[in-house]
Amino acid sequence: MSLKIPKLTVVGAGPGDIDLITLKAIKAIESADVVLYDALINEVLLEYASSRAELIFVGKRKGCYAFQQEQINELIVSKAKSFGHVVRLKGGDPFVFGRGAEEIDYARQFGLETQVVPGITSAIAAPAYQGIPLTKRHVSESFWVITGTTKNHQLSLDVTLAAKSTATIVILMGMSKLEEIVRIFSEENRQETPIAIVQNGTTSNEKVGIGTMETIRDIVERKGLANPAVIVIGDVVKERAVLTSIYKEVNAIG
Ligand code: SAH
Fold it and tell me: Which distant-in-sequence residues (6+ apart) come within 8 Å of 132 by Cβ?
């Protein structure tokens, strides 16, 4: 029996660039007895963990889940009860389509102390590294972040609502629904609306395609764009700031 208090910290690892993690997240990883991590995190960040810590991959690889969500929930509780501090390391921000809240609810039922460390979400960072601001004066007054894949594998109905507005729309997990997204915008007579797709945003493998609703499918095919990608829709796509490439691949911490 461990004397440590069983505790869960759900931690946002940021979108990929290892420098886009918070100090608080690093401190949490350093103090972890067990780290359960997802596929979308940059594994270099695991170097912050103590050499005593157990590191367990619980994500999806080549389309196969290493663990189902229920198993992850149970693992969090059992590891915390046996070893103390469990860090659940997730891509981006854990409360943006990250199931962070579900895991916290579950852990609390078993008496674990729970905390969250917000992260920089890919919804904002991937467009930002392409110079795309989600809001800009006189161009866009708001943004929606919507899932392309609901629990029933459907595109969220919110896309239809958002397409009727002037808001910037950011769609995560939406690549398999591109056809449907284009159709929704065409039905609103918005074939000319700019759209950007950023794959592996903020990493050295970042790829981007920029066009309009009319041209984007060809661009995706030509450039071979695929998941994980953020789709950004709206006039802000035309407002790309000119950035000097700031990305340098760093392979190790220190
Ligand atoms: N909690 C995460 C999102 C998890 S859902 C966050 O806040 O970023 C997973 C989806 O996020 C992917 O299908 C993709 O749409 C998006 N995503 C995550 N990392 C990404 C990256 N580096 N570049 C582009 N899209 C990314």
Answer: 196, 232, 236, 237, 239, 240, 241
